Amino acid sequence: MSAGADWRSAGPWDAVVVGGGHNGLVNGAYLARAGLRTLILERRPVVGGAAITEELRPGFQFTTFSYALSLVRPAVIHELDLVTHGFQPLVMPSTFCPMENGDALVLGPDRGENLTEIARHSRRDADAWLQYQHDLTMVARALQPVIDAAPPDLLDPSPEARAELAALARHLGGLEPKVLHDLVRLLTGSAADFLDHYFETEIIKGWLSASGVIGSRLGPMSPGSGLVLLFMHLGQHDGDLGSWAFHKGGNGGFTQVLARAARAFGAEIATGAEVDRVLTAGGRATGVALADGTEVTARVVVSAADPRTTFTRLVDPAELPAQLVSDLGRYRYQGVSSKVNFALDGLPRFPGLVGGRQDHWRGFTNIAPSVEYVERAFDEAKYGWYSTHPFVDCAVQSILDPDMAPPGRHVLSCFVQYTPYELKGGASWEAEREPMADRVQATLARFFPGFDDLVLQREVVTPLDIEQVAGLPEGNIYHGELLAPQLWAFRPAPGWARYRTPIGGYYQCGSGTHPGGCLTGAPGRLASYAILADLADLARP
Question: Is 425 inside any structural domain?
């Protein structure tokens, strides 16, 4: 719902936030909570960005783009009092990994049962499982302070900046040697190499390695996939690191919670309000101009868009340092992910499971039976084509939230890799969207006989759709690849990772800033701290 019609003439505002995705909503909520008159502008008819839920068939709710919840920072939940506004994560307790020989790996919430299930595939791997979980969790815990703080400016020679680096060095120096070594291995190496240290069974390594390629133009054997594997383990629910959940009503339900929280703190939210450019005068932002010609004045402007939009479209690059413009020209997106969502007439059947059990559908179903399977899927993408046998990460969301579909029917959300944004030979996604979805459906039918007969409707979302509808360049779900040169103090560029820009009063709070993509809320929160600190400095005599 749009804000009242008077928002166009209600200025000047203390702060205008460009973009009503989850980070824009978080940022606006924090600024309003601090007492700033805050306006959040969203170009689409609904807030949420890539985190929306849509009814594309009567009674069926589709999570069009993003589809699960884990990485939201606990501080955001508590400080914005999201539970009061309807925050309701439904923990996904199971993992279901079908195998090509008709068997499967099925894990749930019971540790003892999980060890028995893993031992059925490999006793050695059962012995290694608890050690692997412990080691990965220790590294994730070591990174929590880094995730929850603004990165230092490595180019700043001031004593304050050097003190921040010294504090980080003390933190890292205080880690146990194995934890520090594992951190380096994950930051620089491949998921496959890290997993080989623990496991011998292909189904286990295939399942876990797939977490190292989510949303990235990497294979599980590529350096850098270890970093993505670690990133996916940083999330938590009630302190359980690495756990995932599905929000009631989908991720669109979650962003509606954020919108309610922002409004409760006093923020105004206007939809159908596309920002054309940021207004500047004397090296400072003074407001924004909308596509319809409306001008809105504000002391502070915050962009929740990606770095390319923030620095090269909303403002004139001539107002920026040449080195920053050059760095942003090398910033990499390279989306490789798609979604294929299904409305189903019933639950898929897996012959390897008997007795009519359904508990294995209460989490993710992972079509990645081996590291080689995922790596071969990546091979085709390296040369500009979508995978013949794709990696598919599925969730029957209506099992967790029955309101997502009519009784007896279901919605199946499928995250798909690899589908490169740029197809070879000049091929277009308009022509290849259905053939790509056919491959996804054929993959599901290979593991679940009779799947085709269950399909009532399917929604196909290509990287081009993600770009054009959700506004994510090249369809990259993170606002830019999660590569070491594009993280921490280098995201989005050296010297500009602390949410400020070279233009006074103009800030960035999108996923193209630290700590990166997925539904974390951390960029929105940390950017609000930078803004409030600067405003406090300006207010001092």
Answer: yes
pLDDT at 147: 94
Give the whole-angstrom CA distance, residue 407 versus residue 402. Answer: 7
Q: Are 386 and 350 in contact (CB under 8 A)?
A: no
Q: Strand pairing of 284-290 and 104-107? A: unpaired
Work out the burial of residue 239: count CB atoms within 10 Å of its CB; fewer than 13 is exposed, 13-18 middle, 19 or more buried.
exposed
- Residues 81-107 as b/e (b if ≥16 CB within 10 A, e otherwise) read ebeebbbebbbbbbbbbbbeeeebbbb
Counting the structural domains of the chain, the total is 3
Which domain, by its residues, includes 384?
A: 333-348+358-442+454-470
Q: How distant, in Å, are the alpha carbons of 66, 107, 141, 446 from that of 374? A: 21, 20, 28, 16
Mean pLDDT on 173-196:
96
- The predicted model scores a pTM of 0.95
73 contacts 520 by C-beta, under 8 angstroms: yes
463 vs 338: CA distance, rounded Å: 6
Q: Where are the alpha helices (DSSP H) in 100-249?
A: 111-121, 123-147, 159-173, 177-188, 191-196, 202-210, 225-231
Does residue 228 sit within a domain?
Answer: yes
Cα(341)–Cα(412) distance, rounded to whole angstroms? 6
How does pLDDT run across 65-83, given as a tens digit for each residue? 988 888 899 999 999 999 9
Query: Is there a domain that residue 108 lies in?
Result: no
Report pLDDT for 219: 97
The strand ranges marked E within 291-383 are 295-303, 337-344, 364-367
Cβ distance 531 to 519 under 8 Å?
no
Check whether residue 176 and residue 257 sit in a common domain. Answer: no
For 383-418, write each residue's pLDDT tens digit: 999 999 999 999 999 999 999 999 999 999 999 999
Amino acid type, 330: R
